[in-house]
Amino acid sequence: MSAGKHFVSDPKDLVRTSLSGLVAANPHLALDEKEKVTYVKDLALLRTKQVTLFCGGGSGHEPAHAGFVGHGMLTAAVSGHVFASPSSSQVLSCLRRVYSEEHGTLVVIKNYTGDVLNFGRAVERFKSESVNQGKPLPKVAMVVVDDDVGVVNPNDDAEGGVGRRGLAGTVLVNKFAGARAATGGSLDQVKAVAEYVISNTFTIGCALNAASVPGQGLPRVLGDDEIEIGMGIHNEPGFETKKPQPADILIPSLVDHIVSSAPFKKAHPGRTGRVILMVNNLGATSNLELGLVTKLAVEAARDRGLEPVRIYSGTFMTGLAMPGVSISLL
Hey, which residues are catalytic here? Predict the structure, then answer.
């Protein structure tokens, strides 16, 4: 469980120093420390060859997003403070750096108010700059990932005012869009692939406790006899708190929640077919337990007429050191 203890010197400088460590361990990466932008080192060459794309948001979700910068995926990632969107100026600096005049640029974000506002504002500022300089309108597109189906009870038709948040499905968007860009797709084609993945990816999370935030501690604590279904990656409340269940009961119920959700049924009325299954460690689940969760999720999908043609199991998008998992179906 999260205990409120951290390896940290200065919480205010944790993001910058962490990114420096990431870059030190990965020679293909470079870092703009001031703006907290991580990008591929051979960026100048890459811009001439393909559509570039970047993602970003608050830190605390590592390896997302800077950990997915590289050939075939993201060209760059821009990081805000822990659980806080990067500023529009940070995003603008990233866009100026990675923009490909010949091929264009795709911006991928998660559906959170700060990200939508700051990234959207940066894109509009970038377009205005070009127009004011007498240049053609730049080829820039933005997509918003909203794969969360855990914001409301599946028995409710209305989704309420929260909206579907962006979760681990964002990594699948980056992978597919990045692959299409690397194989020579146009901006319209890369965007279409991203939109297809967004429209067909559905995620539910389950946490045993909230995560401690460096410098702030635990925002709330679940009891020893409580787990939460739908807890967000920033400790946002889920839709249900319940008693712990054996994994062979809990995990199939999470898969049931996905296939019974209104967004899934709307996209796939038949509720059967080929899927990609992603089992994601939210940060503090042991690999031993994750293996069990993966086995049960695969079996539950097959029992419900779904055929997992590719299975990802690991740590892709965390909520700091949150003890929990999320399951995504594409």
Answer: 234
